[in-house]
Design a protein that fits this description.
The complex is a heterodimer of chains A (221) and B (76).
Chain A lengths: L2 E5 L6 H12 L4 E4 L11 E4 L20 H10 L4 E4 L1 H8 L6 E3 L7 E9 L15 E8 L3 E3 L2 H9 L3 E5 L10 E5 L5 E4 L17 H7 L5
Chain B lengths: L1 E8 L6 H12 L12 E6 L6 H12 L5 E7 L1
Antiparallel strand pairs in B: 1-2, 1-3
């Protein structure tokens, strides 16, 4: 299992993501710089980490979504390679058009930084197969622009197709229908504002994020 | 040549920043402000050969997020 973490100028969760991937796979991921136009060969899983790529200039994730490496990420996603975008990574995936919708300023205007309860809405995806449908899990959030927006038609389609992976159990940031994470239509791209990579070690307050990586990286029995 | 780009939130998209600005104006005692919506203004300095189609593509591909924003191009 070869994994990659894409690193943008301003990424700040890339090392946490690397620790999560190495914990689960036993191998350190390739850290791939945004200026590269190709991924290393044989990558089976790509993570876009949290942070403030390009200082959130223009819009969160806007510049990163147009960086050279995103062409290779899009190509890999189209081939079915699992792609996980967390927080700023989710913003990048929506800006790049790999996921529908947009992430706007939190409705309360505050930066929200705390552990929040989530409901697992879809336990059938390759990322969420380690959870039970409807299960309540606790995952930290830390963001200013996590207010998920899409038009009603898109939201209905996402719900109808089981593409809402996670929902906030209580409102956090004004997100439409309390959506915390969405899948692409093929189910191999997941974007989510909460940080599963920050919930893999009991010493850090919880391990509810671990099963996401275990499922996606294929190490569940 | 100077080109002004106005990026605004689409009607119906909630604008929490506009709401906060509205509250602040009221807090300063300005009466009669009925609504505030905040957008972005971008000034480009472009060569003469840059076409309207080029400018439109710049807006659609980068300067605006057309999921939530509209844009208007004005050659100054």
């Amino acid at each position: 299992m070869k994994t990659a973490v894409i690193v943008f100028p301003g990424s700040n969760c890339d090392r946490d993501m690397a620790v999560a991937l190495e914990t689960v796979t036993g191998h350190a991921p390739a850290m791939v710089w945004h200026r590269d136009s190709e991924l290393p060969g044989g990558i089976d899983f790509i993570a876009l980490p949290g942070g403030f790529s390009y200082g959130d200039y223009l819009r969160s994730g806007a510049m990163a979504a147009r960086s050279p490496i995103l062409g290779a990420v899009s190509e890999a996603a189209a081939r079915g390679v699992p792609v996980l975008g967390v927080c700023n990574g989710f913003q990048v995936l929506t800006e790049a058009g790999l996921l529908p919708g947009a992430l706007m300023r939190n409705a309360g205007l505050n930066f929200v930084c705390r552990t929040v309860p989530l409901t697992v809405e879809n336990s059938q995806s390759l990322f969420t197969a380690g959870y039970r449908a409807g299960e309540a899990i606790d995952i930290p959030v830390a963001h200013h622009d996590g207010n998920y927006f899409a038009d009603a038609e898109t939201l209905d389609r996402l719900e109808g197709e089981g593409r809402v992976a996670f929902r906030y159990a209580a409102p956090v940031n004004g997100s439409a229908r309390d959506i915390a994470g969405v899948l692409n239509d093929a189910g191999n791209v997941l974007g989510m504002m909460p940080h599963p990579e920050r919930a893999i070690d009991r010493a850090h307050g919880g391990t509810d994020g671990l099963r996401l990586f275990e499922a996606a990286l294929g190490v569940l029995a | 040549m100077k080109v002004n780009i106005y990026v605004t939130l689409k009607p119906g998209v909630l604008d929490p920043q506009g709401k906060a600005i509205h509250h602040a104006l009221e807090g300063l005692g300005f009466a009669g402000v009925e609504d505030v919506r905040a957008g972005r203004f971008i000034e480009l300095e472009v060569a003469d050969g840059v076409s309207d189609a080029d400018l439109d593509a710049m807006c659609a591909k980068l300067l605006a997020n057309t999921v939530i924003e509209n844009y208007r191009i004005q050659r100054a």
